[in-house]
Design goal:
The complex is a heterotrimer of chains A (350), B (268) and C (553). The radius of gyration of chain A is 38 Å and the shape is extended. The two termini of chain A are 57 Å apart. Chain A is built from nine helices and twelve strands. Chain A has helices at residues 2-6, 38-41, 43-73, 81-113, 130-147, 153-165, 168-172, 184-189, 236-243; strands spanning 120-123, 202-204, 221-226, 245-249, 269-273, 285-287, 292-294, 301-303, 309-312, 321-322, 324-326, 332-334. With 350 residues, chain A is of the alpha+beta class. In chain A, α3 (43-73) runs antiparallel to α4 (81-113). Chain B has three domains: 2-42 and 232-264, no CATH class; 47-134, Cytochrome c-like domain (Cytochrome Bc1 Complex, Chain D, domain 2), CATH 1.10.760.10; 135-229, Cytochrome Bc1 Complex, Chain D, domain 2 (Orthogonal Bundle), CATH 1.10.760. Chain B is elongated, with a radius of gyration of 25 Å. Chain C folds into three domains: 1-33, no CATH class; 45-243 and 250-297, Cytochrome Bc1 Complex, Chain C, CATH 1.20.810; 308-450 and 481-553, no CATH class. Chain C has helices at residues 12-24, 26-33, 46-65, 91-101, 106-133, 142-164, 169-183, 189-197, 206-236, 256-281, 287-290, 306-317, 342-370, 386-405, 408-414, 419-458, 482-489, 509-522, 531-552; strands at residues 37-38, 74-76, 88-90, 250-255, 321-322, 325-326, 328-333, 336-341, 460-467, 473-478. Chain C has a two-stranded antiparallel sheet. Chain C has a two-stranded antiparallel sheet with strand order 2-3. In chain C, strands 5-6 form a two-stranded antiparallel ribbon. Classes of the chains: A alpha+beta (350), B mainly alpha (268), C mainly alpha (553). Chains in contact: A-B, A-C, B-C. Chains A and C meet through α1, α4, β1, α8 and α9 of A and α5, α7, α8, β4 and α10 of C. β1 (120-123) of chain A pairs antiparallel with β4 (250-255) of chain C, so a sheet runs across the interface.
Chain lengths: 350, 268, 553
Amino acid sequence: MGDERHGDPKHSGAVDPVGQGDVNQFTNPGLPPHPPRITDTNPQAEKRAERQVMVLFIISVIGTVLFFFGYFGVGHTGIEIGTKLRLQNTLIGLGTAFAMLGIGLGIIHWAKALMPDHETAESRHEIAPESQRAEAQEIIEQVLEESGMKRRKVLRNTLLGAAAIAPLPAIFMFRDLDRSQLGAHAMVDRLRHTMWSEGVRLVRDPSGLPIKASDVQLGSAFHVIPEGLNELHEGKLNEKAKAVVLLMRLPKDKMTVSPGRETWNVDGIVAYSKICTHVGCPVALYEQQTHHLLCPCHQSTFDLTQECKVIFGPAGHALPQLPIKMDDEGYLVAQSDFQEPVGPSYWERG
Amino acid sequence: MKALSQRRRSPLAVFALLVIGLLVTGGLYAVASGSVSKAQADETTQTVNGSVENGSKLFAANCATCHGLAAEGSDSGPSLVGVGAAAVDFQVGTGRMPMQMQGPQAPSKPVQFDEQQTADLAAYVASLGAGPAIPDEETIDISGVSDEELANGGTIFRVNCAMCHNAAAAGGALTRGKFAPSLAGVSEQHIYEAMVTGPQNMPVFNDSNITREQKKQVIAYLKHIEAQGSPGGQALGSLGPVSEGLFIWTAGIGLMVAFTIWITSRHA
Amino acid sequence: MSQTTEYTPKTDVGRIANFVNQRTGAAAAVKEFGRKIFPDHWSFMFGEVALYSFIILLLSGTFLTFFFDPSMAETHYDGSYVPLRGIEMSVAYSSSLDISFDVRGGLFMRQVHHWAALLFVAGMSVHMLRVFFTGAFRRPRELNWVVGGVLLILGMAAGFTGYSLPDDLLSGNGLRIIDGVIKAIPVVGTYISFFLFGGEFPGTAIIGRLYVLHILLVPAIILLMVVLHLMMVVIHKHTQYPGPGRTEDNVVGFPVGPVYAAKAGGFFFVVFGAIAAIAALFQINPIWNYGPYDPSPVSAGTQPDWYIGWVDGALRLMPGVLGDFSFERNVAFPWGHNTFVFNVLLPALGPALFLLGLLFAWPWIERWITKDNREHHILDRPRNAPFRTAVGAAGVVFYCTMWAAASSDLIATHFHVSLNDVTYWLRTIFIIGPFIAFWITRRLCLSLQRKDRETVLHGREAGVIMMSPEGGYSEKHEQLNEYKRWRLVSFDTPQYIPAQPDEDGKITKKEKRRAKWSKFFLEDRVAPVTPAELAAAHDHHEVEGGDHKSLGH
């Protein structure tokens, strides 16, 4: 088969027909003759190489000096960042570099030019000589015999059983890695709840100022947190990681609203979770002409006009919508919490 | 001749080459970073009063094909009624308009109109309907921004802008060929105008979303980090781990290969 | 003991050496290692690049621990970096900023540490590629190949845990991605996430925990593995490339003392110097640009360090929804509904398990297919093992496609193409690229082998054009000398072995499968030139010459 594809086997370059390789082989000619180096034959070249090595070592010394010049000469901490800190970093770095390269290149040049360059051969030893193996086997058998492991089966089996379960406490010790002291169900249930609830105002991230419906013009995007988040002392980032919302206004004719969500927007103003349903990056990129939301981490793209359905990328479901309304003063507030867990999917999400 | 070729093979030559390479890289960067600050000095805001009449003529000649004779918009260009003078100053002043060809997005290119013409066009478009005006000098004067306000500007930038423009304002990708440009070298006025008008796919950041003071802080932050440069050395485009990884695989591993070949080669 | 007269040294150094030897028996080690032979080849030095980078990581890392505080307690920054002054952040981030701006040389040390980390994993990768493509993993070195693979994974683990420590926006979003991936694991994922983060993401525990892993556990295991790795190198002795004088029973090279020690020792300083030069001139991970971690902002260009990039790229390549089909499956169980997050699970675990599984198992797979269980100390030139080289190339393309996908956004902006198109193209390459790479590489290897045969049989093209008295032109061919020839003919290439009956005379199904693979991998084969062929070729030349003459007239 091979021969036909690769031409006449009698000519060079032909594929050897399978299984018919000639067994007779060339013999190893041994190490080739060793030509002397210029430093071996020419004393002047040898002197020159010696000087070169010395110069390299001196360069190393200069490098160390350069380091100290950068360290003490440029200034103390808190120096101007763009110029002086950069200069210091460069001087310290190049100083170190020259100090190291000088030594390294010097030693290697020394080895190459002045130390003997005769290649020599060393023979390999058998890795596992048979005599050793036999001896080891004997020893192991003797040890097993003397220990009684083979005869006293009850002892062996109870020991194995005990050893198998003894590490379990060590594993279960890690149960309290979650510091919340919650039971298993309550632990997982946290993922379903955020700070949003009825009447919680939508406020700007990070200033905490409330947002009037009239502030939200077509084409604008507000990064929103729930009112009161900034005042939290504990777990602020945990709450923020679930509660951040993106607020935009859509032209009414571009919106598709599914049954049950008719009242979730305020005159085209919609609020969606900013946490990507893929693996949780903030989906913060709003294209105001196409009304697409893009996640910069893995490029999941959500279509705002179709209730943030996934139209590209690795996300598996739409961004959850936050039902909003207007309060008496004209500020935007939540109608309730999200109706589904925000962020990445997980086993218990269902 | 022979002596020369011998010297070329000398191990010192490799070393010298390395030193030269390192110095040149450092030197080039120093030159490059110098030119950035020079470019900045050229940016000065001038207020020129535009004439609606001249603007109207310019518009008819240069813009009406796409935007319609009365700027009412067409299939190939949006309506400009109510976009304001700021939008015109930004689009025309950065060379984005007139567009060279239809594409996913109008990129900035050499400016086609002089300041007077731009002002005329802006005046004309502003006369068609109320919209954001070109900011006056006081609005974008960042000299009075305190350190605290500067830091606040940084926070606002990270929340509202960094996801598209990158934390170091180096730019980033959007969907289907669109992109958020780098903000290096963009004037205070144009940054401000972009925020209030939301050019192309950029959202609008009106004064109730990001106040005038906050916009000033954002601009001050951008100008600060631009002037400050990169203390650690050449910034590799400020593109993050990708350019760093690329660098170690090209320059880093390349350097290592060069050294190992030298180390294991036979001395002449 | 006391009967024999004790050796009394004459110099001070001698006295110290003698003292040490009498108490430790160090002379035995000197005898064993002092003149041990190491072969010299540039491609053998990448393990050293990795090892030296690791030492530099230990040195610079220790310096950094003196200043770094892995606490996630809130603080207000008051250091020298103006644009962050007064901003609320974790103590970890604040102390990282202090290292950068308020500890002299701290920025340099951070940059050395990070660049060395990138070079560490890159060095290991190049080293493993060399070992793979030259077949150095074959018996007796299979276990050392596995240890090497474990080291690669540990290197990535060390890198990732370190990447997250400064608690900046970039690394925080990286952690958030990890959290999302962990949550996708069926049944236990949610709990693992809670246990890792000490509750909900991000919590206040993760940095401290990663810190312990990063500075204690992972480096300790790496160190242990390095010791194992080097011990096995001593036991096996180094492999060598084929060449005159080199056999399966010897090692040709330089003795440790003085040449090899000088070269290897000097190389440590060279690697250190190179990393220092890079850290002096090129900025890495400017954490002050990213700001403190906050779950709301994100930066364009959020990517992991290069060695995690391929997993990130796989996450990007996977479509979450195809038409109306979502890869997120809600399944009804008797106890309620549960979710399989295949759009995260498949890309996060699939390629990694496949690639690492293949990597670890390859020595055994190759042994099974080729039925070659001999010891190998002479390396293959990659072209002389076309099937292996082709598999390696396919693996490299597979890996690099995912790697490229991790920078799809930067590819889009820098080459002015659509981000979506880049993803579509990379999805295509991800599927067909490895096969094309396999095919092309194997063809390439076979062609190179044929070229070698040509060179052996007809000599090297000397670049001299000769004109015959009759006016015909031909190029002069120089015959190879026996040393050069030996390099080209001394290889041994496995052959297709059809299915063999077992002891009972039956051909098992497994054996049939092996034979199929064997046929697929090994059927196309170029054998080395034999002396007989060479002699025949020389005769042929003379005949050819004769033909020429007759044609001329």
